[in-house]
Amino acid sequence: MYHSINHSTLSLVDLGWSEFFDDQIGSDETGLVPVRVATVHRSRMTAQSVAGPVKLRLPPKTNTAYFAVGDWVLTEPRTHLLVRLLERHTLLQRQTEGARTSQLIAANVDTLFIVTSCNEDFNHARLERYLVLANEAGTTPVVVLTKADQTADVSPFLQKAAELQRDLDVVAVNAKSDEAMTALAPWCGAGQTVALVGSSGVGKSTLLNTLAAKSSETAQPTGGIRKGDDKGRHTTTSRSLHPIIGGGWVIDTPGMRTLHVGDVGIGLDILFSEIMELAPQCRFRDCSHTQEPGCAVQAAVAAGTLDPERLARWRKLAEENRGNSVTESGPRGNKTPEFRGKRR
Ligand SMILES: Nc1nc2c(ncn2[C@@H]2O[C@H](COP(=O)(O)OP(=O)(O)OP(=O)(O)O)[C@@H](O)[C@H]2O)c(=O)[nH]1
Ligand SMILES: [Zn+2]
Protein backbone atom coordinates (compact mmCIF):
# COMPACT_ATOMS: atom_id res chain seq x y z
CA MET A 1 0.00 0.00 0.00
CA TYR A 2 1.49 3.35 -1.00
CA HIS A 3 -0.02 6.74 -0.29
CA SER A 4 1.45 10.07 -1.29
CA ILE A 5 0.49 13.60 -0.33
CA ASN A 6 -0.19 15.76 -3.33
CA HIS A 7 1.30 19.04 -2.15
CA SER A 8 0.16 20.97 -5.19
CA THR A 9 -3.41 20.68 -3.92
CA LEU A 10 -2.66 21.96 -0.40
CA SER A 11 -4.03 25.29 0.74
CA LEU A 12 -2.99 27.28 3.80
CA VAL A 13 -6.26 26.18 5.44
CA ASP A 14 -5.31 22.54 4.81
CA LEU A 15 -2.09 23.30 6.69
CA GLY A 16 -4.07 24.60 9.69
CA TRP A 17 -4.21 28.30 8.79
CA SER A 18 -7.15 30.33 10.12
CA GLU A 19 -8.41 33.87 10.62
CA PHE A 20 -6.52 33.96 13.90
CA PHE A 21 -3.24 33.96 11.95
CA ASP A 22 -4.53 36.01 9.03
CA ASP A 23 -5.38 38.86 11.41
CA GLN A 24 -1.74 39.07 12.47
CA ILE A 25 -0.37 39.93 9.02
CA GLY A 26 0.65 43.58 8.81
CA SER A 27 0.01 45.66 5.70
CA ASP A 28 3.79 45.66 5.09
CA GLU A 29 3.96 41.85 5.35
CA THR A 30 1.69 40.82 2.50
CA GLY A 31 4.73 39.88 0.39
CA LEU A 32 5.84 37.32 2.97
CA VAL A 33 4.89 33.65 2.83
CA PRO A 34 3.40 31.84 5.85
CA VAL A 35 4.82 28.35 6.40
CA ARG A 36 4.32 25.88 9.24
CA VAL A 37 7.30 24.66 11.26
CA ALA A 38 7.72 20.90 10.75
CA THR A 39 10.97 20.15 12.59
CA VAL A 40 13.12 22.07 15.07
CA HIS A 41 16.75 21.11 15.60
CA ARG A 42 19.49 22.94 17.49
CA SER A 43 20.64 24.95 14.48
CA ARG A 44 18.16 24.20 11.72
CA MET A 45 14.43 24.13 11.12
CA THR A 46 12.22 22.83 8.34
CA ALA A 47 8.66 23.82 7.46
CA GLN A 48 5.64 22.76 5.44
CA SER A 49 4.57 25.25 2.79
CA VAL A 50 1.64 24.98 0.41
CA ALA A 51 4.20 23.90 -2.20
CA GLY A 52 5.77 21.18 -0.02
CA PRO A 53 8.54 20.90 2.57
CA VAL A 54 11.12 23.71 2.78
CA LYS A 55 14.36 24.21 4.67
CA LEU A 56 14.20 27.49 6.57
CA ARG A 57 17.06 29.97 6.42
CA LEU A 58 17.62 31.25 9.92
CA PRO A 59 18.90 34.76 10.70
CA PRO A 60 22.20 34.72 12.62
CA LYS A 61 21.84 34.08 16.37
CA THR A 62 18.37 32.55 16.00
CA ASN A 63 17.59 30.56 19.13
CA THR A 64 15.59 27.60 17.83
CA ALA A 65 14.46 26.80 21.40
CA TYR A 66 11.92 29.63 21.01
CA PHE A 67 10.19 27.77 18.18
CA ALA A 68 7.93 24.76 18.36
CA VAL A 69 6.78 22.23 15.80
CA GLY A 70 3.41 23.49 14.54
CA ASP A 71 4.37 27.16 14.73
CA TRP A 72 3.41 29.50 11.90
CA VAL A 73 6.23 31.73 10.67
CA LEU A 74 6.46 34.34 7.91
CA THR A 75 9.26 33.85 5.38
CA GLU A 76 10.86 35.63 2.41
CA PRO A 77 9.39 33.92 -0.67
CA ARG A 78 12.61 33.33 -2.62
CA THR A 79 15.14 32.64 0.13
CA HIS A 80 12.90 30.96 2.77
CA LEU A 81 14.49 33.34 5.27
CA LEU A 82 12.58 33.26 8.54
CA VAL A 83 11.21 36.76 9.23
CA ARG A 84 8.72 36.48 12.07
CA LEU A 85 6.95 34.04 14.39
CA LEU A 86 3.18 34.45 14.54
CA GLU A 87 1.33 34.40 17.82
CA ARG A 88 0.17 30.91 18.80
CA HIS A 89 -3.39 29.77 19.10
CA THR A 90 -2.38 27.04 21.55
CA LEU A 91 0.96 26.06 23.04
CA LEU A 92 1.80 22.77 24.72
CA GLN A 93 4.71 23.23 27.08
CA ARG A 94 6.13 21.58 30.12
CA GLN A 95 8.25 22.58 33.06
CA THR A 96 11.60 20.94 33.23
CA GLU A 97 13.10 20.31 36.62
CA GLY A 98 15.15 23.27 37.76
CA ALA A 99 14.72 25.07 34.44
CA ARG A 100 13.72 28.72 34.53
CA THR A 101 11.74 28.58 31.31
CA SER A 102 9.46 25.86 30.10
CA GLN A 103 10.19 23.49 27.24
CA LEU A 104 8.00 23.90 24.18
CA ILE A 105 6.36 20.67 23.04
CA ALA A 106 4.16 21.74 20.11
CA ALA A 107 2.21 24.79 18.95
CA ASN A 108 -1.21 25.33 17.39
CA VAL A 109 -2.40 21.83 18.30
CA ASP A 110 -6.19 21.37 18.26
CA THR A 111 -6.33 17.94 19.92
CA LEU A 112 -3.92 16.16 22.23
CA PHE A 113 -4.08 12.38 21.90
CA ILE A 114 -3.02 11.12 25.32
CA VAL A 115 -1.90 7.61 24.53
CA THR A 116 -1.87 4.81 27.07
CA SER A 117 -2.40 1.11 26.64
CA CYS A 118 -4.86 -1.43 27.99
CA ASN A 119 -2.32 -2.89 30.40
CA GLU A 120 -0.36 -1.78 33.47
CA ASP A 121 0.82 1.39 31.71
CA PHE A 122 -2.56 2.84 32.67
CA ASN A 123 -1.79 5.26 35.50
CA HIS A 124 -4.29 7.81 36.82
CA ALA A 125 -1.72 10.24 38.19
CA ARG A 126 0.30 10.29 34.99
CA LEU A 127 -2.74 10.70 32.73
CA GLU A 128 -3.97 13.55 34.93
CA ARG A 129 -0.67 15.36 34.35
CA TYR A 130 -1.14 15.10 30.58
CA LEU A 131 -4.71 16.34 30.95
CA VAL A 132 -3.53 19.40 32.88
CA LEU A 133 -1.02 20.09 30.09
CA ALA A 134 -3.74 19.91 27.42
CA ASN A 135 -6.30 21.91 29.41
CA GLU A 136 -3.83 24.66 30.17
CA ALA A 137 -2.79 24.90 26.52
CA GLY A 138 -6.41 25.21 25.33
CA THR A 139 -6.04 21.93 23.43
CA THR A 140 -8.86 19.34 23.51
CA PRO A 141 -7.65 16.13 25.19
CA VAL A 142 -8.65 12.68 23.95
CA VAL A 143 -7.47 9.53 25.74
CA VAL A 144 -6.44 6.88 23.22
CA LEU A 145 -6.25 3.41 24.72
CA THR A 146 -4.01 1.24 22.54
CA LYS A 147 -3.53 -2.53 22.52
CA ALA A 148 -7.29 -3.05 22.78
CA ASP A 149 -6.62 -6.25 20.79
CA GLN A 150 -4.43 -7.59 23.61
CA THR A 151 -6.99 -7.50 26.40
CA ALA A 152 -10.07 -9.63 26.86
CA ASP A 153 -12.21 -6.72 28.02
CA VAL A 154 -11.53 -3.05 27.27
CA SER A 155 -14.51 -1.76 29.28
CA PRO A 156 -12.70 -1.38 32.64
CA PHE A 157 -10.06 0.74 30.85
CA LEU A 158 -12.69 2.84 29.07
CA GLN A 159 -14.46 3.37 32.38
CA LYS A 160 -11.32 4.38 34.29
CA ALA A 161 -10.29 6.79 31.53
CA ALA A 162 -13.72 8.41 31.27
CA GLU A 163 -13.63 9.12 35.02
CA LEU A 164 -10.45 11.19 34.65
CA GLN A 165 -12.24 14.34 33.51
CA ARG A 166 -15.81 15.40 32.81
CA ASP A 167 -16.88 15.09 29.15
CA LEU A 168 -13.55 13.49 28.23
CA ASP A 169 -13.48 11.60 24.94
CA VAL A 170 -11.95 8.13 25.20
CA VAL A 171 -11.24 5.78 22.30
CA ALA A 172 -9.89 2.21 22.43
CA VAL A 173 -7.96 1.03 19.38
CA ASN A 174 -5.55 -1.46 17.96
CA ALA A 175 -2.91 1.08 16.89
CA LYS A 176 -1.63 -1.31 14.23
CA SER A 177 -4.95 -1.59 12.45
CA ASP A 178 -6.53 0.80 9.93
CA GLU A 179 -9.63 0.82 12.13
CA ALA A 180 -7.67 3.10 14.48
CA MET A 181 -7.75 5.63 11.66
CA THR A 182 -11.54 5.47 11.43
CA ALA A 183 -11.94 5.70 15.20
CA LEU A 184 -9.74 8.81 15.37
CA ALA A 185 -11.09 10.46 12.19
CA PRO A 186 -13.32 12.93 14.10
CA TRP A 187 -10.18 14.79 15.26
CA CYS A 188 -8.18 14.37 12.06
CA GLY A 189 -10.10 16.39 9.48
CA ALA A 190 -8.47 18.73 6.95
CA GLY A 191 -6.59 21.55 8.68
CA GLN A 192 -6.80 19.85 12.10
CA THR A 193 -3.64 19.27 14.11
CA VAL A 194 -3.23 16.54 16.68
CA ALA A 195 -0.24 15.73 18.89
CA LEU A 196 0.63 12.41 20.49
CA VAL A 197 1.91 12.09 24.05
CA GLY A 198 2.32 9.09 26.30
CA SER A 199 4.89 6.88 27.96
CA SER A 200 7.45 4.97 25.99
CA GLY A 201 6.11 1.80 24.41
CA VAL A 202 2.41 2.63 24.50
CA GLY A 203 2.24 2.76 20.69
CA LYS A 204 2.70 6.42 19.70
CA SER A 205 4.95 5.59 16.76
CA THR A 206 2.67 2.74 15.72
CA LEU A 207 -0.31 5.10 15.79
CA LEU A 208 1.63 7.73 13.85
CA ASN A 209 2.53 5.20 11.19
CA THR A 210 -1.14 4.19 10.91
CA LEU A 211 -2.44 7.78 10.76
CA ALA A 212 0.20 8.92 8.30
CA ALA A 213 0.07 5.57 6.45
CA LYS A 214 3.85 5.49 6.35
CA SER A 215 5.46 3.10 3.94
CA SER A 216 8.08 0.89 5.56
CA GLU A 217 10.95 3.18 4.37
CA THR A 218 9.49 6.34 5.88
CA ALA A 219 7.95 4.76 8.98
CA GLN A 220 8.95 5.76 12.49
CA PRO A 221 10.87 2.95 14.12
CA THR A 222 8.73 1.19 16.70
CA GLY A 223 10.26 -0.57 19.64
CA GLY A 224 9.38 -4.11 20.56
CA ILE A 225 8.00 -4.12 24.05
CA ARG A 226 9.88 -6.04 26.70
CA LYS A 227 7.86 -8.90 28.09
CA GLY A 228 7.00 -8.79 31.75
CA ASP A 229 7.00 -5.14 32.72
CA ASP A 230 5.01 -3.63 29.85
CA LYS A 231 7.69 -0.96 29.49
CA GLY A 232 8.84 -0.20 25.97
CA ARG A 233 12.24 1.07 24.93
CA HIS A 234 12.58 4.65 23.83
CA THR A 235 12.54 4.66 20.06
CA THR A 236 11.25 8.15 19.25
CA THR A 237 13.98 10.78 19.38
CA SER A 238 12.66 13.98 17.84
CA ARG A 239 9.33 15.57 17.09
CA SER A 240 7.93 16.55 13.74
CA LEU A 241 4.80 17.39 11.80
CA HIS A 242 3.43 14.60 9.57
CA PRO A 243 0.46 14.69 7.16
CA ILE A 244 -2.45 12.42 8.08
CA ILE A 245 -4.01 10.47 5.25
CA GLY A 246 -7.28 12.15 4.33
CA GLY A 247 -6.36 15.47 5.95
CA GLY A 248 -4.94 16.89 9.14
CA TRP A 249 -1.51 16.83 10.73
CA VAL A 250 0.02 14.79 13.51
CA ILE A 251 2.94 15.77 15.73
CA ASP A 252 4.78 13.05 17.60
CA THR A 253 6.67 13.85 20.79
CA PRO A 254 9.55 12.00 22.36
CA GLY A 255 8.69 10.13 25.55
CA MET A 256 8.60 12.53 28.48
CA ARG A 257 9.86 10.81 31.59
CA THR A 258 8.98 13.61 33.96
CA LEU A 259 6.07 15.97 33.68
CA HIS A 260 6.16 18.67 36.34
CA VAL A 261 3.33 21.13 36.67
CA GLY A 262 3.61 24.89 37.19
CA ASP A 263 1.44 27.83 36.13
CA VAL A 264 -1.41 25.46 35.29
CA GLY A 265 -4.17 26.79 37.56
CA ILE A 266 -6.77 26.76 34.81
CA GLY A 267 -5.71 23.31 33.63
CA LEU A 268 -6.11 21.94 37.15
CA ASP A 269 -9.52 23.57 37.67
CA ILE A 270 -10.82 21.98 34.45
CA LEU A 271 -9.40 18.56 35.33
CA PHE A 272 -10.81 18.56 38.87
CA SER A 273 -14.01 20.49 38.14
CA GLU A 274 -16.09 18.12 40.33
CA ILE A 275 -13.94 19.13 43.33
CA MET A 276 -13.85 22.81 42.34
CA GLU A 277 -17.64 22.91 42.22
CA LEU A 278 -17.97 21.55 45.78
CA ALA A 279 -15.60 24.09 47.33
CA PRO A 280 -18.05 27.06 47.39
CA GLN A 281 -20.34 24.93 49.60
CA CYS A 282 -17.67 24.54 52.28
CA ARG A 283 -18.34 26.52 55.47
CA PHE A 284 -15.00 28.33 55.29
CA ARG A 285 -13.99 30.24 52.18
CA ASP A 286 -10.35 29.21 52.56
CA CYS A 287 -11.21 25.57 53.36
CA SER A 288 -8.28 23.22 52.71
CA HIS A 289 -10.71 20.27 52.44
CA THR A 290 -8.71 18.28 55.00
CA GLN A 291 -10.50 18.32 58.37
CA GLU A 292 -12.49 21.55 58.61
CA PRO A 293 -16.06 21.26 59.87
CA GLY A 294 -18.69 21.77 57.19
CA CYS A 295 -16.34 20.76 54.35
CA ALA A 296 -18.39 19.80 51.28
CA VAL A 297 -15.43 17.98 49.72
CA GLN A 298 -14.90 15.74 52.76
CA ALA A 299 -18.67 15.22 52.87
CA ALA A 300 -18.55 13.94 49.28
CA VAL A 301 -15.76 11.52 50.22
CA ALA A 302 -17.84 10.31 53.21
CA ALA A 303 -20.90 9.90 50.97
CA GLY A 304 -18.87 7.85 48.50
CA THR A 305 -19.36 10.26 45.59
CA LEU A 306 -15.69 11.41 45.55
CA ASP A 307 -12.80 8.97 45.49
CA PRO A 308 -10.37 9.86 48.32
CA GLU A 309 -7.45 8.87 46.06
CA ARG A 310 -8.64 11.35 43.46
CA LEU A 311 -8.75 14.04 46.15
CA ALA A 312 -5.22 13.09 47.23
CA ARG A 313 -3.98 13.38 43.63
CA TRP A 314 -5.62 16.82 43.29
CA ARG A 315 -3.91 17.93 46.50
CA LYS A 316 -0.50 16.74 45.31
CA LEU A 317 -0.78 18.46 41.91
CA ALA A 318 -2.20 21.67 43.40
CA GLU A 319 0.70 21.84 45.88
CA GLU A 320 3.28 21.17 43.18
CA ASN A 321 1.68 23.86 41.02
CA ARG A 322 1.79 26.39 43.85
CA GLY A 323 5.49 25.71 44.35
CA ASN A 324 6.29 26.11 40.64
CA SER A 325 4.15 29.09 39.63
CA VAL A 326 5.46 32.56 38.73
CA THR A 327 2.63 34.23 40.61
CA GLU A 328 4.11 32.83 43.84
CA SER A 329 6.78 34.76 45.66
CA GLY A 330 9.96 32.94 46.58
CA PRO A 331 13.07 31.72 44.79
CA ARG A 332 11.20 30.67 41.62
CA GLY A 333 9.06 33.78 41.52
CA ASN A 334 11.34 35.67 39.13
CA LYS A 335 10.70 33.40 36.16
CA THR A 336 9.58 35.25 33.04
CA PRO A 337 6.25 34.06 31.65
CA GLU A 338 7.45 34.22 28.05
CA PHE A 339 5.94 32.42 25.08
CA ARG A 340 2.77 31.39 26.76
CA GLY A 341 -0.06 29.97 24.71
CA LYS A 342 -3.19 31.94 24.11
CA ARG A 343 -6.30 30.45 25.62
CA ARG A 344 -9.49 30.05 23.76
N1 LIG B 1 -1.04 -5.66 19.40
C1 LIG B 1 -0.78 -4.36 19.47
N2 LIG B 1 0.50 -3.95 19.56
C2 LIG B 1 0.75 -2.64 19.64
C3 LIG B 1 -0.30 -1.67 19.64
N3 LIG B 1 0.25 -0.44 19.75
C4 LIG B 1 1.59 -0.61 19.79
N4 LIG B 1 1.91 -1.95 19.72
C5 LIG B 1 3.26 -2.53 19.79
O1 LIG B 1 3.89 -2.04 20.97
C6 LIG B 1 5.29 -1.80 20.75
C7 LIG B 1 5.64 -0.36 21.12
O2 LIG B 1 5.01 0.54 20.21
P1 LIG B 1 5.69 1.91 19.75
O3 LIG B 1 4.79 2.48 18.72
O4 LIG B 1 7.11 1.75 19.42
O5 LIG B 1 5.59 2.76 21.08
P2 LIG B 1 5.98 4.30 21.31
O6 LIG B 1 4.94 4.86 22.21
O7 LIG B 1 6.19 4.98 20.02
O8 LIG B 1 7.33 4.21 22.11
P3 LIG B 1 8.57 5.28 22.15
O9 LIG B 1 9.00 5.49 20.76
O10 LIG B 1 9.58 4.55 22.98
O11 LIG B 1 8.03 6.51 22.82
C8 LIG B 1 5.54 -2.15 19.29
O12 LIG B 1 6.04 -3.46 19.23
C9 LIG B 1 4.15 -2.09 18.67
O13 LIG B 1 4.04 -2.91 17.54
C10 LIG B 1 -1.67 -2.13 19.57
O14 LIG B 1 -2.65 -1.37 19.60
N5 LIG B 1 -1.84 -3.49 19.49
ZN1 LIG C 1 -13.73 22.04 52.13
Word description of this protein:
It contains nine helices and 13 strands. The protein is α/β, with parallel strands linked by helices. The protein has three domains: about 80 residues, OB fold (Dihydrolipoamide Acetyltransferase, E2P) (Beta Barrel), CATH 2.40.50.140; about 160 residues, P-loop containing nucleotide triphosphate hydrolases (Rossmann fold), CATH 3.40.50.300; about 55 residues, Orthogonal Bundle (Ribonucleotide Reductase Protein R1, domain 1), CATH 1.10.40. The protein has a six-stranded mixed sheet with strand order 10-9-8-11-13-12, with helices on both faces. The protein has a five-stranded antiparallel sheet with strand order 3-2-1-4-5, with no helix packed on it. Strand 6 and strand 7 form a beta hairpin. The C terminus is likely disordered. Bound molecules: guanosine-5'-triphosphate (GTP) and zinc ion (ZN). The site of zinc ion has 7 residues, from helix 8.
